[in-house]
């Protein structure tokens, strides 16, 4: 689906916020070990020594960090919304939805115990916030507006052995977005004033970037919020990301402003600037990026056109795209041992939701043959940090029309290699109309065991291959597999044969399809 709508369609995947903020844990500043003297000069020397000690500690840790393979899970509140409506095939059905959900970053076993503990605490806080929000909105169950949804969306921006950073609620259209940056070694939550220690340099950098991008009206907001740690921010792989709110009176949009490490090297310590040997970053469309020693700017005419321009270090290169494709939607930069690649996504033509063009920055060649299924469109921009664990959005029609994500890695020549099945956010559900016996799934494979489910069992979309099966999570967190086969001539608008003997309309309620 089009990125202009993705915040709304991942408003099945990226929604609205309204909740309690997790209080920032102040990190203790380095204390001087020098004895206090009565001399002001000595005090000044102590402060200078303290600053040098802190910088020396940062420099010790400035070697290239390792990527952390962060996963994203989802949780939901107990508030369920039920409604009736058209299925998209001319018949009535019941629909079920849990509107209050949150995405939770989780780190692998190799992460420090302190970081794991910090994210466990974040998860606990989110579960409490979800329940509090649900309790406060029980009487507005029929209000489907964006502002009547908890803002559980998360945008992961950096995930390595130095820092883990993400923002919550920036795609929610509410005013309550929050930032979370952790020291990956200590698990301590980091403040912006601990990342940027020179306010004057920060103000100057903000002025320069907002002037270059024509957003000078946001400069004052950034400069006023900095000293009080009132800004929504994150560390990214390109630079420091500021999320500055802009409201039309009803909804709030967050404008992302990037202060790149390479444009403003003196603004950051070496530890902040150090990135893994391989990394990925979401660049801001139609703005100049400075990353991996390259100045990159992509421009495309508004509306439909058959070409676009990539400028690298003041050299322009023109590339082809579909004549019917439209505006530039997103840009993803990827650095791997194979080279540097730029993935440009455009509004699609009649046949496709969007078109993805890969540009090889070594030889400036292009291709649209990325080796991915036709169902896939552009990248899931909520988790672009590691070339080995990227995700493509896909619209699947298996037992419902839903957006799913396909895990991929960047391989030779920038080709994208699938790394598993499609994954769902996990908050859309079906109910069984009759008892069913289904296979249990463990670690993505059928275990050989079965379970009998009674009528009116809740099934939450979990994973699938887009053609022959859908995995569902049960309320007790077990996963079951439903085998399906396409049958467009089924009775009463049924589209799938289930377990080789049932029609989908006979065994499930809650299915919905795009018209």
From TrEMBL:
Keyword Signal: yes
Biased composition (Low complexity): 32-51
Signal peptide: 1-23
Protein name, entry field: Lipoprotein
Compositionally biased intervals (Basic and acidic residues): 52-61
Keyword tags: Signal
UniProt superkingdom: Bacteria
Organism: Stomatobaculum longum
Region span, Disordered: 24-92
Lineage: Bacteria, Bacillati, Bacillota, Clostridia, Lachnospirales
């Amino acid at each position: 689906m089009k990125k202009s709508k993705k915040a709304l369609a991942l408003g099945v995947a990226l929604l609205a916020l309204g909740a309690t903020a997790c209080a920032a844990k102040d990190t203790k500043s380095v204390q001087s070990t020098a004895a206090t003297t009565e001399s002001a000069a000595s005090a000044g020397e102590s402060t200078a020594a303290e600053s040098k000690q802190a910088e020396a500690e940062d420099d010790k840790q400035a070697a290239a960090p390792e990527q952390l393979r962060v996963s994203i899970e989802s949780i939901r509140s107990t508030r369920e919304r039920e409604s009736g409506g058209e299925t998209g095939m001319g018949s009535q059905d019941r629909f079920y939805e849990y509107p209050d959900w949150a995405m939770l970053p989780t780190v692998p076993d190799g992460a420090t115990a302190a970081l794991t503990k910090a994210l466990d605490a974040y998860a606990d806080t989110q579960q409490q916030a979800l329940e509090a929000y649900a309790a406060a909105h029980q009487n507005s169950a029929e209000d489907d507006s964006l502002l009547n949804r908890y803002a559980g969306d998360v945008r992961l921006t950096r995930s390595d052995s130095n820092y883990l950073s993400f923002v919550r609620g920036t795609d929610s259209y509410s005013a309550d977005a929050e930032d979370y940056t952790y020291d990956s070694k200590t698990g301590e939550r980091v403040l912006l004033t601990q990342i940027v220690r020179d306010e004057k340099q920060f103000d100057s950098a903000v002025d320069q970037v907002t002037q270059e991008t024509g957003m000078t009206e946001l400069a004052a907001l950034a400069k006023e919020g900095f000293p009080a740690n009132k800004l929504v921010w994150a560390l990214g792989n390109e630079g420091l990301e500021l999320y500055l709110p802009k409201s039309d009176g009803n909804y709030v949009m967050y404008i992302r402003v990037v202060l790149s490490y390479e444009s403003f090297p003196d603004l950051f310590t070496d530890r902040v600037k150090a990135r893994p040997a391989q990394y990925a970053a979401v660049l801001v469309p139609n703005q100049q990026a400075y990353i991996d020693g390259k100045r990159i700017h992509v421009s495309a005419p508004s509306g439909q056109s058959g070409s676009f321009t990539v400028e690298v270090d003041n050299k322009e290169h023109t590339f082809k795209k579909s004549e019917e494709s439209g505006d530039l939607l997103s840009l993803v930069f990827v650095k791997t041992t194979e080279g540097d690649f730029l993935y440009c996504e455009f509004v699609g033509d009649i046949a496709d939701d969007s078109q993805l063009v890969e540009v090889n920055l070594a030889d400036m060649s292009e291709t649209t043959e990325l080796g991915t299924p036709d169902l896939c469109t552009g990248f899931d921009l909520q988790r672009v940090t590691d070339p080995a664990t990227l995700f493509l959005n896909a619209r699947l029609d298996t037992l419902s029309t839903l957006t799913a994500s396909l895990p991929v890695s960047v391989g030779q020549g920038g080709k994208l290699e699938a790394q598993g099945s499609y994954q769902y956010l996990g908050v859309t559900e079906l109910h069984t109309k009759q008892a069913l016996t289904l296979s249990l799934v463990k670690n993505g494979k059928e275990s050989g065991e079965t379970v009998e489910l009674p009528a009116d069992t809740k099934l939450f979309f979990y994973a699938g291959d887009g053609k022959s099966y859908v995995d569902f999570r049960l309320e007790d967190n077990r996963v079951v597999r439903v085998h399906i086969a396409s049958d467009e001539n089924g009775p009463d608008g049924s589209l799938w044969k289930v377990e080789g003997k049932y029609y989908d309309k006979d065994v499930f309620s809650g299915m919905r399809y795009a018209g």
